[in-house]
Design goal:
Two copies of one chain form a homodimer.
Chain A lengths: L3 H11 L7 H10 L1 E5 L4 E2 L7 E7 L2 E6 L5 E7 L4 E4 L6 E6 L3 E7 H7 L5 H26 L2 H14 L10 E3 L4 H8 L3 H13 L3 E4 L3 E4 L2 H7 L8
Antiparallel strand pairs in A: 1-8, 2-7, 3-6, 3-8, 4-5, 4-7, 9-11, 10-11
The first copy, chain A, binds a DNA duplex (30 and 30 nucleotides) through helix 7.
Chain lengths: 233, 233
DNA sequence: CGATGTCTTGACCAAGTTCAAAGCGCGTGG
DNA sequence: CCACGCGCTTTGAACTTGGTCAAGACATCG
């Protein structure tokens, strides 16, 4: 279990540009705060302000709640990633841990305010937001044009690319999310996701062990099933 | 037909922060360029660089091309809006005019480079990118969880909100896009969109005149059809 | 006023959802 | 350490929505 100092240090090394002045870093450190979430724990950032969150350990989902009992997972966050959390807008968003998670939260305008003369931090913020925008648009494309098979295959490939979770071999990952969470992110039902898993298993594309361990047996076939489109959720 | 000076001037008044220095504005002006597109004309921003485009007149769509003949409209742009165009990434994007359009294009890193000491322009860029991210995420939610009826009703309401095109009365707009473009943006087929129009007409929610003029007869019903249920637990 | 491309409508079909029940992994407690 | 039971997952069958194919209607433009 890391404390704030370790977390911030890791964030500094992994994400922050290297040529920041000490003053910049200090200002930023004063705005940032650490969060330790248990599985299913949720972080609510009250107020209208956007936040960025650096995920150090674990995994999170960013969920939009809708009228009815419908919900849509808008993004996942994995270790070493920085994710953008919108402040209160037309839709309510919240950040929920899939498993025990350590993260560092930074109010967006903290990032702006902490930015010194050379505005390196601002550039970081833009860069990250544009990244998030790209992922979100890829997501829109996936939801608008892809079949269930393509969505799940693309999802699995994306999980591998993002190194979702510790893998014994490079062909194997442990998915930290349930079928319900996968289906919410792909705009499908649990049953359809499950059926797709079974069919892809029968086709020899993947193998599954227990509930959440997936091994790829045929990368080419999987990429083909995805429609050659590795999307990011 | 505006020339570059008029266009830039309008952009300055409508979008740029008011306290920019003359030097900032001058630097920006050197990076920006005007584009006049005919209906169906496309602007291709070669190279890996992102751009922003200020729409002065007309309307545009931002399209992602996919393997196969599938395409997905990722965003529309209407007058007074600033839209973000990603540089060449995994998917090819292009900006296409729905009708005769005048716009001002600004390379994203022009915005960054032109930014002076107080980095006001950087803040503008962030703000706009975050806005685009919000719209894109709303789009994901729509595509992931809404039925055809809800999508079209929501689309129409959004068009009214954004003042898509000159309206005779506040109940009436002229949609500048074809059914095919509507369906591509909603992740549906032309036929489904057409059927939904007919059904909503039969339900007395809307009236249509010619191909593209829509008059709302029942705002509440339309909002309800869009799934904007206000008091839903 | 006629040609052309867009839009509408219908019949049929397939993908995905819903509802229901059985199977199985995983944590708990004996 | 194994048995138990809960809850997640899988599977099945009926159904619904939206997609596909095809033909006819209608605006809009020359």
């Amino acid at each position: 279990m890391n404390d704030f100092i370790d977390l911030f240090d890791e964030f500094d090394r992994r994400i922050l540009p290297h040529h920041l002045t000490d003053a910049d870093i200090l200002r930023l450190r004063q705005k940032a705060f650490a969060l330790h979430l248990r599985a299913q724990g949720h972080a609510d950032f009250a107020g209208p302000e956007d936040h960025f969150a650096y995920v150090a350990k674990g995994a999170v989902k960013l969920v939009a709640y809708l009228s009815g009992s419908r919900e849509q997972i808008v993004a996942f966050g994995f270790p070493r990633e920085l994710i953008h959390i919108p402040g209160s807008g037309p839709n309510g968003f919240s950040l929920i841990a899939l498993e025990a998670t350590e993260l560092l939260a930074i109010p967006a305008d903290g990032l702006l305010a902490a930015s010194g003369k050379d505005s390196t931090l601002l550039r970081l913020a833009i860069e990250q937001t544009i990244l998030a925008l790209g992922r979100s648009r890829a997501n829109s494309i996936m939801l608008g044009t892809h079949s269930a098979r393509e969505r799940l295959a693309g999802f699995l490939l994306a999980m591998f690319e993002r190194g979702a979770c510790h893998r014994a071999s490079p062909e194997t990952i442990r998915l930290p999310m349930s079928r319900a969470e996968i289906s919410d992110s792909l705009g499908l039902t649990i049953e359809t996701v499950s059926r797709q898993f079974s069919e892809m298993r029968n086709l020899g594309l993947i193998e599954t062990t227990g509930r959440s361990i997936v091994t790829v047996r045929d990368w080419e076939g999987l990429a083909h099933a995805a429609g050659h489109m590795p999307a990011a959720a």
